[in-house]
Structure formats: structure tokens, C-alpha cells
């Protein structure tokens, strides 16, 4: 099992003390969200059922179930500023793991990270836990390995089909993850990522985002060998309503925007 570790609580405590804070370690009063004992019991070759028995149902899955992710936090330090200096706060420990399975659904390896973000040995990178910053969910933003990103940025359509690239421009309104759905395929993305859908020809797709009210929506017809680009964004209407928008963009502009972003690891 591979492990990476963030800056230690003791270093943070020293920094806070030097800054005039009262620091109370509180981690021992909370359960470890991902107990080390359970993680060390995970052995190569274990089934998915055995993994769930030890550490529970995955918080997020990607790659058609090849990758399972678990992530959570617990309070580590209670930092209170000295009298007359205002309020303090809570500093959390972050933990997340990637569990990778082979084509026979047997455990290959487990990467354990004690950090808020980072990259696993697979090359996949956790960029955020998702809508809840303290517990990972399927809305987590997870970027694909660099080689997958490079292939997607060659902008080649799939054999006998078409490809749709979707990206999101947060502007100054909303920075968190949003969902986008093309018919029944739903994914989460943020302003630093993009996603690619591959479709069969002849299908008329509905591209929908949960952004704003009313939600953004557009129709798209798949033609063999075609590459299309859609831009998600939001803005305030004349009636001061926060509205979502889904708009097609030309190939040149679309490629320029995609090249600035990282490919999402598909579900």
C-alpha cells in the first residue's frame, strides 16, 4: 500500500502558537475516517465484496468500476485566537484512497493519501472531494491520467461514431462542481476540467446542466466522424434570475478551451 502525507499537525500547531493562537489537538476524540488497520488488511487479489466488507461501499467510482475512491476528514486541531484577536477555527485532517481492480475485478493496489488533493500511482488525480468538502461523494472532481488526457486532446472521433467535448466557465458566480448530463450519462466537472462523451451516429442528444434556474439545455445531433464542443456557463438575467446556459462553440474556440483544462476520469 502506497501512502503520501501532508504537513503534520505538530508543524501547524507550532505555527499557530507563534501567531498568537491557543491550539488544542482534538483528533484523538474522533474516529479515524479510514482506519489504518482496515487498509493494511486489504491484500492484492481480494474481491470487490471483500473490499466492501473491510472499508464499506465506495464514496465514488470511476472507469467503469475499475477505480474506487474513499475520502473523509476529521477535526485535528481546534485553534482559538488569544483574547481580543477574534474567533478561531477547526483544522481538519484529510484522507483519501484509490482502490484499483483488474479486468477480473480483483484488487490490484491501494493508494493511501493523507492530503486534500493528490495523484495516485494510476496517474489519476483527486482535485476535490465534491459538493461536501469533508466527505467524498460521486460529485468528486477526479482527473484522468495524463496519457488519457493527451489522447482526448488529439480530438479524434471514435470509430463509427462522434465525440462531444463539454467544459464549464465558472466566471465569478459559482466555483464548485456542477453536473452535466447527455441523455442518461451524467458527470460532474468544474472550471479546471472537461469531459468527453462518445456517441453512436443518428442519435439526438439532450445536453443538460443543473446550473441555474431554469437549467441550461441544448439539443445535439450525432453525425459519424463529427467532433462537437459545448460551453456551460451561468449569468444573471434581466429579472435577476440565476440562469444556466448550454451553448455550442466553434471547433477552434472549443479546442483552445479544452487545451487549458484536464480530462475528467469518466464514471
Structural summary, described in words:
By secondary structure, this protein is mainly β. The chain folds into 2 domains: 2-130, no CATH class; 148-263, Immunoglobulin-like, CATH 2.60.40. Helices cover 14% and strands 42% of the residues. It is built from 5 helices and 18 strands. Strand 14 and strand 15 (217-221) form a beta hairpin. The radius of gyration is 21 Å and the shape is globular. Residues 5-19 and 81-87 have low confidence and may be disordered.
Set down the secondary structure blueprint.
Elements: E1 2-5, H1 9-18, E2 21-25, H2 36-40, H3 48-55, E3 60-62, E4 67-81, E5 89-101, E6 107-114, E7 118-119, E8 125-128, E9 141-143, H4 146-152, E10 162-168, E11 178-182, E12 185-189, E13 193-199, E14 204-209, E15 217-221, E16 227-236, E17 242-249, H5 251-258, E18 262-263
Parallel strand pairs: 1-6, 10-16, 13-18
Antiparallel strand pairs: 2-4, 3-4, 4-5, 5-6, 7-8, 8-9, 10-13, 11-12, 11-14, 14-15, 16-17
Keywords:
single chain, Immunoglobulin-like, 2 domains, six-stranded mixed beta sheet, 42% strand
Contiguous low-pLDDT stretches (5 residues minimum) are: 5-19, 81-87
Structural class: mainly beta
* Beta-strand content bin: 35-45%
The first-to-last residue Cα distance is: 24 Å
Structure in a nutshell:
The protein is mostly beta strands and 267 residues long.
Amino acid at each position: 500500500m502506497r501512502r503520501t502525507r501532508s504537513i503534520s499537525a505538530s508543524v501547524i500547531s507550532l505555527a499557530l502558537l507563534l501567531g498568537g493562537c491557543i491550539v488544542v489537538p482534538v483528533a484523538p476524540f474522533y474516529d479515524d475516517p479510514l482506519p489504518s488497520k482496515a487498509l493494511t488488511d486489504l491484500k492484492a487479489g481480494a474481491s470487490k465484496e471483500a473490499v466492501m466488507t473491510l472499508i464499506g461501499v465506495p464514496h465514488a467510482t470511476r472507469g467503469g468500476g475499475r477505480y474506487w475512491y474513499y475520502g473523509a476528514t476529521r477535526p485535528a486541531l481546534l485553534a482559538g485566537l488569544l483574547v481580543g484577536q477574534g474567533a478561531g477555527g477547526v483544522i481538519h485532517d484529510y484522507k483519501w484512497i484509490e482502490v484499483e481492480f483488474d479486468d477480473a475485478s480483483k484488487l490490484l493496489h491501494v493508494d493511501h493519501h493523507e492530503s486534500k488533493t493528490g495523484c495516485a500511482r494510476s496517474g489519476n488525480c483527486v482535485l476535490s472531494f465534491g459538493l461536501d468538502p469533508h466527505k467524498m461523494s460521486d460529485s468528486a472532481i477526479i482527473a484522468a491520467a495524463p496519457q488519457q488526457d493527451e489522447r482526448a486532446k488529439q480530438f479524434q472521433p471514435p470509430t463509427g461514431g462522434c465525440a462531444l467535448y463539454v467544459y464549464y466557465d465558472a466566471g465569478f458566480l459559482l466555483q464548485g462542481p456542477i453536473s452535466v448530463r447527455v441523455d442518461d450519462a451524467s458527470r460532474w466537472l468544474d472550471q479546471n476540467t472537461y469531459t468527453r462523451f462518445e456517441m453512436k451516429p443518428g442519435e439526438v442528444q439532450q445536453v443538460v446542466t443543473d446550473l441555474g434556474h431554469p437549467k441550461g439545455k441544448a439539443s445535439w445531433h450525432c453525425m459519424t466522424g463529427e467532433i462537437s464542443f459545448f460551453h456551460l456557463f451561468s449569468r444573471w438575467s434581466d429579472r435577476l434570475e440565476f440562469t444556466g446556459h448550454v451553448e455550442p462553440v466553434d471547433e477552434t474556440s472549443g479546442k483552445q478551451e479544452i487545451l487549458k483544462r484536464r480530462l475528467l476520469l469518466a464514471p
